Amino acid sequence: MLDDVLSWPLRALRTIAGWALGLLGWLWALLVDEIFTNVYVVAAAVYGFFRALGVTVRSGFTGQRFTLGRADKRLDPGFHWLIPFVQRAKVVPTRSRTLDLEGQRIATRDGLVVLVSSNLVWRIEDVTKSLVEVDNLVAAMRDWLAVAAARVLSATTRADLNSAGGDGGSAELDRRLEATLGELLAPWGVAIERAGFPTIAPSPRTALILQTRGRVRTRLAAHDTLGGGALGVLLAGGHPELPARRFQRAAPREAASRAARRAAGQLAAALRAGGPGPLPVGHSVVVPERHTGPGGTKAGPKRQRVGSQRNIGPVEKSRPRSERFDR
Predict the structure, then answer these.
(1) Which of the residue ranges 19-33, 163-177, 185-199, 247-261 has the most confident prediction, judged by mean pLDDT?
(2) Do 122 and 191 meet the contact criterion of CB atoms below 8 Å apart?
């Protein structure tokens, strides 16, 4: 009886072991069958497993290791082992890179609008900050480059931009931009190597304003020169008056034009009232008549010059040509 009681656990263990071995055998057979059936899937799974065991960092790059989501170690160029599914690594380039921004419109302190292009040479110094403190480093840096360029140029005037045409002025604007960007990008672990403005050009409207201002100043200088007696030296000591304005010179011509139109109207009224007759040579009147055009017979005014055969009455036609307009 005692032997039966002691042998029961052994028989139970043997039964469980048999079931476990049977299950393992079935799984092994299934695995072998899947390996020969889906070769490419199995190869990809094996490759992914071994890739999870480590990472290779190339020269010019730096890696950051994360253990259970926490950044804990910087990885220099070379091969580094990782614990699969527990640790992972992210590699970023730490060599110098450039960033360009074209066609930015900025208003200066005195209200002139300029079109600016700016560029930046940068590199990552702190890999942890560049990966943790900002989501998209390059996009954020492009935004800060626009902000820094606006801060620098909005504090300048036209005189500063004119002086920037030389090497000294341009270098000063570049130094301001570099200092501003260094302050803005420091929290992201980015070092600024070079920053500057390749081109600063006025907008089309600003260029028109500047050209108009230059022409006005040139005319004012000529006005002062003529009024100051320089022309009088050429005219044997005479001192001419200042040039008259356009409307003053055009006033006599306008008065003569109005008088001519008034006389033409009076002559046309007399012609309509009394019929055709001799009129002063050199005037033109508008006489309504019927004339045939391409679309048929139409009534419309025609301008006739006085002195033509159309304006000569029947009595005048009978007189000699030399006596027709004596009166």
Answers:
(1) 185-199
(2) yes
Neighbours of 48 (CB within 10 A): 10
* Amino acid at position 261, single letter: R
The angle at the Cα of 249, spanning 244 to 253, to the nearest 5 degrees, equals: 175
Residue owning tokens 């081109």: 199
On the question of pLDDT at 142 being above 90, the answer is yes
> What 8-state DSSP symbol labels residue 156?
-
Give the model's confidence band at 166: pLDDT under 50 very low, under 70 low, under 90 confident, else very high.
low
User: What's the rounded Cα separation, in Å, for the pair 120 and 101?
Assistant: 9
Write the pLDDT tens digit of every residue in 27-41: 888 877 777 787 787
Which structural domains are found in the chain, ordered by start?
Answer: 52-93 (no CATH), 97-207 (3.30.479.30), 275-318 (no CATH)
The 10s digit of each residue's pLDDT in 41-61 is 778 877 877 878 889 999 999
Around 25, how many Cα atoms within 13 Å sit in the side-chain half-sphere? Answer: 6
Give yes or no for a contact between 203 and 174, defined as CB atoms under 8 angstroms apart: no
What is the DSSP code (8-state) at residue 111? S
Query: In this structure, are residues 130 and 61 in contact, taking their beta carbons and an 8 Å threshold?
Result: no
Beta-bridged to residue 64, according to DSSP, are: 74, 90
Distance, CA of 118 to CA of 176 (rounded, Å): 12
